[in-house]
């Protein structure tokens, strides 16, 4: 016999989705979510939720991904806590209308930009950081004053179930709801008219989301991914660089992160030293048998395990493994694996890896690396290790990516003053900090005028003199206007 919760899940179809959106839209329309007090109360409730239920969150992440407690605590819980704390500190400033200068054309007048909530928004999150990537966008949506539906990833079922439970207990269910499920439920949600859709995941599903949104002219924010490159120059502290690469690759969910280093580019003459240092540091971190390490997450499911093995077993790639390659299908684990000089037309170089495999490409001179990066689709992140100021400037000016980091990896994610988002096929739109608030707000232009200063030149009959003065008024300065009035201008 099905439990009540199972029946609810089965019954969530297009009709149920329509009813849910109608209910949330009524809550939004009555102005409940717009109030400053509601926004602050919900953010504080979310903060209380993670403080009181932290151990449950860690357990769910371990169940879904075998994620080490440190990674769960730092990269998911603490980062979310920081986002909430920042929003609570800054929200009064964020919602305040922004004064702007006006021009002579509208004199006398004043203007401002008013941030208003978009309405009812849908957030579809990813499985690799299922707690952070679910609730971090919700922070921005709440701060902006929206009603929200969150659809967690079914690929991380323990976290999805916990999110539904905790959000139901701690948050205002009249305005914030969680819908669990897979394709059927997501499809039902995508049939609805939303005021914005925020999706985190891969490009294939991103295209489906965008196509569904187009039916209603719904704006979208897509956080996708791509092949994030690491360029390693010579003449650097290689040990520090390698440790930071390892932290960004295997220390971030065992490579299952959208901004994980996807491949390295290095000068051929310097590659052996890089490989030796990678081997040495990996052994220090994860031991001689990394499959037994408790500090590495497992591959999320058998489908992704099979996909990664397919990359490794391709004929043109299998002989390129210089470290690792061990696998444990029973426990869905693959050891950190380094591959040297893989062909650029191989599967591993044509698709985002999203796992513990790290190919290394070699070039004759390091400057050639930028051409390789720019020949592919634009990545979500790109990294450079160098002490060369000219190379750094070239990297920043020529490489197009969602974000760049020099002499480290992934840390830009933690800087709330920086926007986080993609470009091209790695996504559109950005969030984090104030950018999250802006992502879920409409910037409404407001101009205030009095009844004084009504100018006759606006109105018919249109004369040559009016035309001359209007031209100067629209394009000139106060001195040009005075000159025109005195007959000095020939316009």
Automatic annotation (TrEMBL):
Q: Which organism is it from?
A: Acer negundo
The record, for CDD domains, names:
ALDH_F3FHI
Which reaction(s) are listed as its catalytic activity? an aldehyde + NAD(+) + H2O = a carboxylate + NADH + 2 H(+)
One Gene Ontology cellular component annotation held by this UniProt entry: cytoplasm
Q: Which UniProt keywords apply?
A: Membrane, NAD, Oxidoreductase, Transmembrane, Transmembrane helix
InterPro entries of this UniProt entry?
Answer: Ald_DH/histidinol_DH, Ald_DH_C, Ald_DH_CS_GLU, Ald_DH_N, Aldehyde_DH_dom, Aldehyde_DH_NAD(P)
**Protein family per UniProt:** Belongs to the aldehyde dehydrogenase family.
For this protein, the record's Pfam families field holds: Aldedh (PF00171)
Gene Ontology terms: biological process: aldehyde metabolic process; response to abscisic acid; response to water deprivation
Q: Can you tell me which residues form the catalytic site?
A: 223, 258
What PROSITE patterns does the annotation carry?
Answer: ALDEHYDE_DEHYDR_GLU
Source species taxonomy: Eukaryota, Viridiplantae, Streptophyta, Embryophyta, Tracheophyta
Protein name as annotated: Aldehyde dehydrogenase
Q: Which residues form the Aldehyde dehydrogenase domain?
A: 12-446
Q: What molecular functions are annotated in GO for this chain?
A: aldehyde dehydrogenase (NAD+) activity
**Where would you find the membrane-spanning parts of this chain?**
469-488
SUPFAM superfamilies in the record: ALDH-like
Gene3D superfamilies in the record = Aldehyde Dehydrogenase, Chain A, domain 1, Aldehyde Dehydrogenase, Chain A, domain 2
């Amino acid at each position: 016999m099905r439990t009540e919760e199972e029946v609810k899940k089965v019954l969530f179809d297009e009709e149920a989705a329509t009813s849910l959106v109608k209910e949330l839209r009524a809550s939004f329309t009555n102005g409940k979510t717009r109030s400053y007090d509601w926004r602050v109360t919900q953010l504080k409730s979310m903060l209380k939720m993670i403080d009181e239920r932290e151990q449950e969150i860690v357990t769910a992440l371990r169940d879904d991904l075998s994620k080490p407690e440190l990674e769960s605590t730092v990269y998911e819980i603490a980062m979310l806590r920081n986002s909430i704390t920042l929003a609570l500190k800054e929200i009064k400033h964020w919602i305040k209308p922004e004064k702007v200068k006006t021009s002579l054309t509208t004199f006398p007048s004043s203007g401002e930009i008013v941030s208003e909530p978009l309405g009812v928004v849908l957030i579809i999150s990813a499985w690799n950081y299922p707690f952070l990537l679910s609730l971090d966008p919700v922070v921005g949506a709440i701060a902006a004053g929206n009603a929200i539906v969150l659809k967690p990833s079914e690929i991380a079922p323990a976290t999805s179930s916990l999110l539904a439970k905790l959000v139901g207990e701690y948050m205002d269910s009249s305005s914030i709801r969680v819908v669990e499920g897979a394709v059927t439920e997501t499809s039902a949600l995508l049939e609805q008219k939303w005021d914005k859709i925020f999706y985190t995941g891969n490009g294939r599903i991103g295209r489906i989301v965008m196509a569904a949104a187009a039916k209603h002219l719904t704006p979208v924010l897509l956080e996708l991914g791509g092949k994030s490159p690491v360029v390693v120059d010579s003449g650097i502290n290689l040990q520090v660089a390698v440790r930071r690469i390892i932290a960004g690759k295997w220390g971030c969910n065992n490579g299952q992160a959208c901004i994980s280093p996807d491949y390295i580019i290095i000068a051929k003459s310097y590659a052996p030293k890089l490989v030796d240092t990678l081997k040495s540091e990996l052994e220090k971190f994860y031991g001689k048998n990394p499959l037994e390490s408790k500090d590495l997450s497992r591959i999320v499911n058998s489908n992704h395990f099979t996909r990664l093995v397919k990359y490794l077993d391709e004929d043109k790639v299998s002989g390129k493994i210089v470290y690792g390659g061990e696998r444990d299908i029973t426990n869905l684990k693959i050891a950190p694996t380094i591959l040297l000089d893989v062909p650029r037309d191989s599967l591993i170089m044509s698709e985002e890896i999203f796992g513990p495999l790290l190919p290394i490409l070699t070039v004759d001179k390091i400057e050639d690396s930028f051409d390789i990066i720019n020949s592919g689709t634009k990545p979500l992140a790109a990294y450079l290790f160098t002490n060369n100021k000219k190379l750094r400037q070239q990297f920043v000016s020529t490489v197009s990516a969602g974000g760049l980091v020099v002499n480290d990896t992934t840390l830009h994610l933690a800087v709330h003053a920086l926007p986080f988002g993609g470009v091209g096929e790695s996504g559109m739109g950005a969030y984090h900090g104030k950018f999250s608030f802006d992502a879920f707000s409409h910037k409404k232009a407001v101009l205030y005028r009095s009844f004084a200063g009504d100018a006759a030149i606006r109105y018919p009959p249109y004369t040559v003199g009016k035309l001359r003065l209007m031209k100067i008024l629209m394009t000139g300065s106060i001195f040009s206007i005075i000159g025109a009035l005195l007959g000095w201008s020939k316009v």
